[in-house]
Amino acid sequence: MVLRGAAATAAATAATTALPGQTAAGATPDEAGARHAGGAEPTVKQPITTTVPRGQWDYLDPYYNVVRGQVPASYHPWVSNRQDRILLYTRTAGPRHAHLGPALPAGLNPALTDAHVLQNAVVKWMGEVGVQVDWTEDVTRMPGIGSTYKAVVFGSTSRDTLWKHGTAVQPAAAVDTTTGAHLDAARTALRQYLRAGGGFVGIHNAIGGTEYNWPYYEGLCGGTQYYDHGAHQNGIIVTLTRDSSTAGLPARWEFKDEWYNWMPFPTRVKFLLAVDESTLATRAGTHPGHGRFHPISWCQYYDGGRSWVTALGHDSAAWTDGSGYVGQAFFKEHIVTGILSAMGKLPFCG
């Protein structure tokens, strides 16, 4: 590929500009290797054209037009006043899992009932580790530029969850560009939040039927989407790698879920958990499955932010302490430490 004009200038500058505290020519092989492999998360703001570590050029995903993967140096520490607080977003624009309970009214932190099992669990579990939780199904509450939330958690969202439904209620209004209606403002907000170093957590249906037609979101979830699943059944989970979100898990453990199949297969991510397909009694009738490697949790850096996702969490009992649900304690550990890592309170996707 031949670069010309401004692109050539930017590439040449990036190739010769040192990171803070070192010279490009004087970098040790270990330092050069770390930079090429993705480096470490920066701790202060840097101009994004003249100080791009050279390795980042290799991590640009041209399909989603973002730097993504195991590239800590691509993280953007642009917001210095983030709080130990997360936003839990559970809006559904299609199928709704039983563990979400009835749809919530507009606003922040509306009243929860016992039926809101996932919401109550996340509030309780994160409170146990000192993290405040706000919750909403109000699309206008999506954090954006400068948000002080350390992470936004999508819990079993569905379909076009970020679209402001009902704004254009008359057929003529749908094509009236003078109304000022910004029906997809939440998409813009989420993208700007991530680009400023926000953390994203996607749980269960958040990567299984959410924002099908927005490529940026597909990339955020690992370049993949849910295709189908087999029966709700027991299986053996394999812990694939050492990570903050797998540190307390055994090498193999039993759990019960729907075991989502993916299409396309996730790429450029660090795989955390997989299910051993040989332990499943039945599989989906259409998708052929993934054979010997069927991932169900993974993480990546994405467009300046952090993304941690898991397909687990279908059954309400998995969200209920003391339920006796198979593998419940390990599931809870995985969720809590995954959120903490996306927040930056534990090492992320190392």
Automatic annotation (TrEMBL):
Pfam families: ThuA. Residues 21-49 are annotated as: Disordered. GO terms for molecular function: hydrolase activity. PANTHER family: GALACTOSE-BINDING DOMAIN-LIKE SUPERFAMILY PROTEIN, SECRETED GLYCOSYL HYDROLASE. This is Glycosyl hydrolase. It comes from Actinoplanes nipponensis. Keywords: Hydrolase. InterPro entries: Class_I_gatase-like, ThuA-like. Residues 112-321 form the ThuA-like domain.
